[in-house]
Amino acid sequence: MATTIDGSTGVTFPAGGTGNPAGTVVGTTDTQTLTNKSIAASQLTGTIAAARLPTGSILQVLQTVKTDTFVSSATVTDTAVTGLTVSITPTSSSNKILVVCNLGIAAENAQGGAAKLTRTIGASTTQLSLADAAGSRSRGSFAGSAYRGSAAGYLLMMLHQSLTYLDSPATTSAITYGVQVSSITVGTYINRTGSDTDAADMYRGVSYITVMEIAA
User: Fold this and answer.
1) Average pLDDT of the chain?
2) How far apart are CA 138 and CA 87, in angstroms?
3) Using an 8 Å Cβ cutoff, are 72 and 181 in contact?
4) Please, are residues 110 and 178 in contact by the beta-carbon 8 Å criterion?
5) pLDDT in the model for residue 157
C-alpha cells in the first residue's frame, strides 16, 4: 500500500502491522490515518528523512518593535525596559536562539545606560553576553554605551546600541528575551533624547528585538 496525501482525510501510509500504533511511519502492511500526530525524527526514513531541514536552518522568527519611549527610575540597577521583550518556544532543546537587538538610548552625564540582554524562563532571569568584570566599572551586553561626557549638547543626542548574540538555552520551555538598563541619580532614556524638547530638531526613535530559532 502506497503512502497517500488527501486534503480531506489527511495522510494514509503503510503501518507496521501487529504491535505498531496508528501514526507509525515504518512497515509494509495495513493502512493507518495520521490525524493530529507528531512524528519523531527517529521514525522518519528514506526520502521523508532527507526532507528534514539541515543544521543551521531558521525554524521560526519572532520580533517585537518598541515605538514609544521609556525612562528608567533614578538610582536603580538593571531595571527592565517595558515593551521590549519577545517570547519564543524552541522546538528542540538542542537548537540555538539567535538574538538581534537594537536600542535607541540616551543617558545624562555619567548617569546610566549600561544595557543588558536578559533571558527569562519561568521565574528565573539570566543576564547574557556580559563584559568581563573589572573593578567598579559598569558592564553591558551591547556594542556601545550611553554613558557620555558632561557637555550639555549631549542632552540633544540619542545613541545607538546593537547586539547579535547566539544563545544555547537547552530547553523547550517558553523563553522571554528582554533588555535591562541601569541609572544612578537620574533615568536612562529609550527612544528619546535626554531633554526631549518638543521641537522639530529633537529626535525620537525605534528599538527592536528579534529572535530566530536555529536548527542544531
Assistant:
1) 81
2) 27
3) yes
4) no
5) 79
The residue behind cell 531595571 is: 79
pLDDT in tens, 36-83: 555 555 555 554 544 568 999 999 999 999 999 999 887 778 999 999
pTM score, two decimals?
0.75
Q: In angstroms, rounded to a whole number, what is the distance separating the alpha carbons of residues 153 and 150?
A: 9
Q: Give the CA radius of gyration of the chain.
A: 25
Q: 164, 174 in Cβ contact below 8 A?
A: no
Q: What is the dihedral of CA 73, 175, 168, 72, to 10 degrees?
A: -10
Domain limits, the chain: 4-50, 58-214
Q: Which helix or strand (DSSP H or E) is residue 47 part of?
A: helix 46-50
The CB-based long-range contact list for 123-126 (8 Å cut-off, 24+ gap) reads none
d(CA 177, CA 195): 29
* Residue 73: half-sphere exposure toward Cβ, Cα within 13 Å: 7
Question: Domain 58-214 class?
Answer: mainly beta
